[in-house]
């Protein structure tokens, strides 16, 4: 994480502002109005759902609703979209098949009573569908360095009637410490931690976070933390009992046909095979799990 594109994230973009979240038992509803609904439905069945159009069209849709949040159903869950700069929101709003191959791959390992870990969870694109699949006896551990994202994820879980999600506001790395958040392209979905040792954002080991949460196995794991993948995941894979190794992993790739070098080597050492690659992610399966 370096270069002029990265800038420190303004505190208003990572600390909760305004009214506190409503209690989980009484969420308010914010459905789209008639015109917004028409545009959303049209875009979802046309080329306007493609990434090149989504940011501009999303801003127009929110403008037509006076800038109010929207509650959108996606993959058997409800997401409250705030209309900010967040490419995840754009995809949920306009593309019913957004990241479908990646989510379906993980669903192949997570069923009733299962355990899913989401590192870089944002507002819950993966967490909510996987928590639904895990059922009331399963667990979903959702981790994000941006505490505002984990608060919004918790609200989305309440709107979706999900009570099996544990949201953790923390960065993940190869050591314990603290840091600041940096943002790229001014997008809340592209945020990484700078481990300064003196910032307001906690930095934890993955093994410690999972131990604190009482996790003893992992069926599926997704990680997307903007270049911190080697530092976050490799130490866990190298020290975990085999019973704790995730059965399936979805990991953001830095290049279309290559993965982070530390993770690539660790996957090979611990018996993972590459099951495929999508536009943004690589899909790994544990052999003989």
Helix percentage range: 25-40%
- The poorly predicted ranges are 16-25
Q: Radius of gyration, Cα only, in angstroms?
A: 18 Å
Q: What general form does the structure show?
A: globular
The biggest sheet, with number of strands, parallel, antiparallel or mixed sense and barrel status, is:
7 strands, mixed
Order of helices and strands: EHHEEHHEHEHEEEEEHEHEHEE
Number of domains: 2
Structural class comes to alpha/beta
Q: Which architecture of the largest domain does the CATH hierarchy give at level 2?
A: 3-Layer(aba) Sandwich
Termini gap:
34 Å
CATH class of the largest domain: Alpha Beta
Brief characterization of the structure:
The protein has 289 residues and is α/β, with parallel strands linked by helices. The chain contains nine helices and 14 strands.
